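Let's study my pick:
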Amino acid sequence: MKKKEMIETLEQARQNKLAYIEACQGNINPQVIELRNKAQGEAAAFEAVLLAMKGQSYMLKVYARGHIMV
């Protein structure tokens, strides 16, 4: 798989997770909340990988540290 195809696949996966998160908004079922939280983590991971693949490794370092170093 070429880099361009990988980026497209990751972007699609991220969009799918964001759509799922939106569909789960407002649901108070604990199991749905757990699944939504998992999807939020996965969407954030996809975003971090996308940023790194697009050459924005600074943001990947921020994600790794958990905060912004100034």
Summary: The chain has a mean pLDDT of 86. Helices lie at 3-24, 30-53, 57-65.
